[in-house]
Specification:
The protein has 234 residues and is an alpha+beta fold. Helices cover 15% and strands 53% of the residues. It has an 8-stranded antiparallel β-barrel.
Length: 234
């Protein structure tokens, strides 16, 4: 998987450079950035531990961006974050029959991934600075039992982003943006009311730990405030 991802990244990078042969800024076309996206955890578990009013999610996203033409850039991005998620625990009677469930289980979640994006500048902006709109497709690969035998799965997502880039001293690239997105899965557990302790076991649907993990990824991905820093490299 890693070898295929490296090959795909190099092919994409070569194609983007080919598209941008006659474009660029100050003779340079390639930017290397490090972005972090933050979103509120809404009193849920996060990498900070137990729910509090100030808990939040983060997604760290280093990326390579190529100026494709005077109003647009394209690139490849990687993703990484760690967090915790709640899941159901089933309780049994003395005869080993399930009697009720409660969302009081907590486990760690490790998420990596990659994506592709296109960024369109508008108004009087000129790539790589000014107001922009960005569309991104992502694939997240996650381990929802990192403390046990690895349980690895993947989920796709897409998002749109609006923001503004600055280029200081013709080299330092700064970015501030807000995003909205969705994964293709995890909706039921992300929207489920977690406060249903002592409900009878058969009175509502039960979900796997994998489903709860997908809901947590959706919760971290659907909204974000992004801060980025990078350089116009070459």
């Amino acid at each position: 998987m890693k070898k295929k991802l490296i090959i795909l990244t190099f092919i994409t990078f070569a194609v983007l450079c080919g598209f941008s042969q006659n474009c660029g800024y100050m003779g340079k076309r390639v930017l290397i950035n490090a972005d972090i996206s933050l979103s509120p955890a809404w009193l849920n578990y996060s990498f900070m531990g137990e729910p509090q009013y100030y808990t939040f999610n983060y997604i760290f996203s280093p990326n390579i961006e190529v100026i494709a033409w005077k109003k647009g850039t394209a690139g490849v991005v990687g993703h990484f974050f760690k967090t915790q998620y709640e899941h159901e625990v089933v309780y049994y009677d003395d005869e080993n029959n399930p009697i009720f469930s409660s969302v009081d289980g907590v486990d760690d979640l490790e998420v990596g991934g990659f994506g592709f994006f296109y960024k369109q500048y508008f108004g009087k902006s000129h790539a790589p600075f000014g107001l922009f709109f960005k569309f991104e497709m992502d694939c997240f690969i996650y381990n929802y039992t990192p403390n046990e035998a690895a349980s690895i799965d993947k989920i796709l997502g897409c998002k749109i982003e609006f923001g503004k880039d600055w280029l200081l001293l013709n080299r330092l690239h700064l970015s501030l943006a807000g995003s909205l997105g969705s994964t293709f899965g995890g909706y039921r557990t992300a929207l489920y009311d977690p406060d249903f302790s002592n409900y009878y076991f058969y009175s509502y649907p039960q979900y796997s730990n994998n489903s709860w993990a997908k809901g947590k990824i959706l919760g971290a991905y659907w909204f974000g405030i992004k801060v980025g820093i990078g350089i116009l490299a070459f």
